[in-house]
Structure prediction request, 157 residues.
Amino acid sequence: MTENEQRLITELGENFPIESRPFAVIGARLGMAEEEVLARVKEFIARGIIRRLSVALRHQNVGFTANAMIVWRVEPERLEEVGNKLASFPEVTHCYERETVPDWPYNLYTVVHRPYREECIAIAARLSEAVGIKDYRVLFSTQELKRSNPQYFTEGG
Prediction:
């Protein structure tokens, strides 16, 4: 991988600009045209260097202080259907399957962020109704222990 490609990947992963044309901004930082940045990103995806490109919003910075993980007990034959349906809701920021363990039968997890706990509880009820799953729990985070961006092409790494 060339040094320019490494610089581009680093720019894509750190402080992605929230602009109408973010790839033009990144290109300006790197001395590249917007079209070249877009072409390289498409190439990285085609080569499997990048799987997906997304922006992670720091929900606390916009006033979303209630963070709820909603855990669902879903029959295995419905997991894909229910997971896809829940993931389609704009309020759901994460949706993933997990193995069950003794005394913990929940196998599908979703995450929502809202300003107030009551809103998370109301969203959970609406999601439950939409997918027909009544066995769920709403768990609220009490503290964020760590959040960091991945570091690529660092000294010694």
In short: The chain has a mean pLDDT of 88. The first strand starts at residue 66 and ends at 72. The first helix runs from residue 3 to 13. The chain has two domains: 3-46, 59-140.
